[in-house]
Design a protein that fits this description.
The protein is α+β, with helices and mostly antiparallel strands and 671 residues long. 39% of the residues lie in helices and 18% in strands.
């Protein structure tokens, strides 16, 4: 009997449907002749808690740190025991095994650790599937590879898993214990990803609090030209009387008096169009969504939190089967999907008037840059499956997200947006005034999107033509502080974390990777920080609480910044490419860990707690206890810190799980 172990049930079903023999559903697997297809449910195993290595670790003590296992152990997740039992029984009867995890680092780990745990050490084949449509799966089944080829990928994933455990377990215990010495009875959780995210918010809040608005002024002139009128804005130049102490480093006018004097002189003045730059531009439609890009748009358009978007997408995928796998970091689609796109989209959109109208006007002969196999990784972009979406049977959020997902795929079958961009520079009284305009020539995909175009249309002009000032004025304005983080901007910051570092090598590494967190974990990381009382929502804004400020201030600076993720990724990439071994990476981490633990100071934390109590940061919200009473997040965390001994990077719970997600070693992978 040949056993194929897929990463998730949806993949198992796709594999079974591609087999030459019709599959029969059994308890925990699908049977198709002499081939059996079973599956994992995300990670069936997790890193053993410290007390599994030694019962003394059940009690948290600084003297026991760092905890470094000599022989690493995995234990079954409680909710996965039944499926693990199915796989154990099937493996005993198997003559051959096929590893069908996702074609990425985590997918290699997820299935292989189960095979190793169940004692399968014989030859294993590797099935790599990036597209769940039947022809692609059939093709992949004909191209099985030797799983030994992917051992470096497994080694890198295993090293990352162990490193996150070492980092999270030891630093969380250390800071929680010194917190107790400082009088804080709560969990102070530290993680490689969650702590830099908290650091981002703390630093943004402080930039806002420390911001002092500065007045500046803008000078404008309304001009009459041959074919109409327009408004132009004064521009600083190298040779003009307004230069010098009147301007700041960004060219903003600080002293209004020279500008007001110039405005009076401008009335009725004559000048000419000195420079004219006109060009036709084409803009392709926005790409289909990845999960993070959808979370950003949904937060802006519909006010949905990142976690809410993930939960709703999971429902659209699992319950309604309206969209493809949602936890994708890719914004491209397989080329093979282009041939079926017309049928898929017309079917998916036929029950909704707006979507049906867009689909009927689409030109399915067009082929945008979204169809690119070279840019499709373990998963492709979010897209409709072709099942008709009955909006009356969907919740408001489900309908809103489905429309966004369908719209961005439909937009690939609309022409490019074509505009005529104009930039005009006028010279008047030896000063320069700039006007910009845009004319839409071909709206293309633009009508599918409700974004406003605030750039005016300029009249037809020719270089050198005269211009007369009909009015002029000087407006007073103020510099504005940075905006507080929201779900949308914080997800975007995590994706583009390279913007927040200065080292060019680190910046490049962070650009080449997923940034902070992954598509599947970013929402959960934010929710974990909110649940633990380190962040709080204030309407749409996300702000750090006093506890969050104190935790960041008490930690070494290196633990609160994103550079560590980049350095880890450099080492893990080398392991995955067989250029390095896992042992030196983990040894370096242990050395780094000892140095960080050496900086754990109850006195420093006490000072940080006192300073945060005097600041303007909000307190953590009071939450209800399980018995109907009320308790603060801090008290709840303190109770939890004494109950559990495993605190690692967060991963999301399923949409049906009402409890806060447990903190585990890696991202959850559910179908």
């Amino acid at each position: 009997m040949r056993l194929i172990v897929a990463e998730k049930p949806s993949l198992a079903r796709a594999i079974a449907e591609a087999l030459p023999v019709k599959a029969t559903r059994r308890e925990g697997y699908l049977e198709a002749g002499d081939t059996v297809v079973s599956w994992c449910l995300g990670h069936l195993l997790e890193q053993a808690p410290p007390e599994r290595y030694d019962p003394k670790y059940k009690q948290w003590r600084l003297d026991d740190l760092p905890i470094i296992p000599e022989r690493w152990q995995l234990v079954p997740r409680s909710q996965a025991r039944s499926q693990l039992a199915v796989l154990r029984k099937l493996i005993k009867s198997a003559d051959s095994v096929v590893h069908a995890g996702d074609p990425d680092r985590e997918g290699q780990l997820l299935v292989q650790e189960v095979l190793n745990h169940l004692g399968w050490h014989r030859e294993t084949q590797r099935l790599l599937i990036q597209d769940l449509n039947r022809p692609a799966v059939v093709k992949a089944l004909d191209r099985l590879e030797d799983n030994r080829r992917y051992q470096p990928l497994y080694a890198a994933a295993e090293a990352r898993s162990r490193a996150d455990w070492l980092y999270g377990i030891n630093l969380t215990r250390a800071w929680t214990l010194i917190g107790r010495q400082a009088g804080f009875d709560g969990l102070l959780s530290v993680g490689r990803v969650q702590t830099p995210v908290l650091g981002l918010v703390v630093r943004r809040d402080r930039d806002i609090a420390a911001f002092e608005p500065k007045p500046f002024h803008v000078l404008w002139a309304d001009l009459q030209v041959a074919n109409g009128s327009l408004r132009a804005w004064w521009q600083p130049g190298e040779k003009h009387p307004l230069d010098g102490s009147c301007l700041d480093e960004q060219g903003r006018l600080l002293d209004p008096r020279p500008a007001e004097a110039l405005a009076q002189r401008l009335a009725g003045a004559h000048g000419h169009l000195a420079e004219l730059d006109q060009r036709r531009k084409r803009q392709a439609a926005p790409l289909p969504y990845s999960l993070s890009s959808l979370q950003i748009d949904a937060a802006r358009r519909h006010g949905l939190s990142a976690k809410r978007v993930l939960d709703v997408c999971q429902t659209l995928y699992e319950r309604h089967q309206l969209i493809t796998y949602p936890r994708s970091d890719c914004r491209y689609l397989p080329a093979a999907h282009h041939r079926e796109a017309e049928k898929t989209l017309l079917g998916a959109c036929r029950l909704d008037g707006e979507l049906r109208g867009w689909a009927e006007q689409a030109d399915f002969r067009l082929r945008s840059k979204a169809w690119d196999d070279a840019k499709v990784g373990a998963h492709h972009a979010l897209a409709p499956t072709g099942r008709p979406a009955d909006m009356d049977r969907l919740t408001r959020d489900e309908a809103s997200l489905f429309r966004l997902i369908a719209r961005n795929v439909l937009a690939q079958f609309y022409p490019a947006l074509e505009t005529y961009e104009t930039q005009a520079m006028f010279e008047i009284l030896d000063e320069r005034f700039k006007a910009q305009g845009r004319e839409i020539i071909e709206p293309g995909w633009k009508p599918l999107f409700t974004t406003r175009d605030d750039v005016p249309t300029l009249p037809l002009m020719t270089k050198g033509e005269p211009a007369t000032v009909t009015d002029a004025g000087c407006e007073a304005r103020e510099t504005r502080p940075p905006e507080p983080f929201t779900d949308a901007s914080l997800i975007k910051a995590m994706m583009n974390i390279a913007r927040y570092v200065e080292d060019p090598v680190v910046k490049r590494t962070l650009r080449d990777t997923d940034g902070l967190g992954t598509e599947a974990t970013r929402a959960s990381i934010i929710e974990t920080l909110l649940t633990r009382g380190y962040l709080v929502r204030d309407r749409k804004a996300i702000k750090a609480t006093r506890t969050g400020h104190a935790l960041i201030d008490s930690l070494p600076l290196a633990a609160t910044q994103p550079e560590r993720t980049a350095l880890w990724e450099q080492r893990l990439s080398a392991i995955a490419e067989s250029q390095d071994a896992p042992e030196p990476f983990l040894e370096a981490l242990v050395s780094d860990l000892r140095a960080l633990l050496g900086q754990a100071s109850a006195g420093r934390l006490n000072q940080a707690l006192k300073a945060s109590a005097q600041g303007a940061a909000p307190e953590a919200p009071v939450r209800k206890s399980g018995k109907g009473g009320r308790r603060s997040t801090r008290q709840s965390a303190g109770t939890r810190s004494r109950r559990t001994s495993q605190t690692k990077e967060s991963r999301p719970s399923s949409s049906s799980d009402s409890k806060p997600a447990r903190v585990r070693r890696t991202r959850k992978r559910t179908p």
